[in-house]
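Please, structure for the following, as tokens.
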Amino acid sequence: MSELLYNALQTPDGTIIESKSRHDYVTHKDANGKTYMIDGGLDYVRCSANGDEKHLTITLDNDHAIVRQYCKWGTRGVAGDKPLTYVSLHEMDTDHIEAVIQNVPSMNLAIKSAMKNELLYREKKNVAKN
């Protein structure tokens, strides 16, 4: 399997639970009474196996039109003084993507590749996000 960019599952009642980082153990008690869980962030996938959940893992192997919707970057704003929020690649300004690629040497390599692919996608499709 290619490197993970999104690790989530959807329960039968439609709830989507997502694990964003290693050991980010997330649970949900569904309307059907069963408990669902997801863990591992972008390092590994560990999840419940009730058999009625829908797995929503996205990797670099997926079409970029899908990757750009689900691959997320955590940000605290330009000055770093805002609460942490996660934004999808398609929501990020081009300048922001370029700054992250240039200034965050320890970032996940799969996310870095997805960001570079996003810049190429925007150039090819003439999509501007500024």
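The chain is about 25% helix and 25% strand. Residues 109-125 form the longest helix (17 residues).
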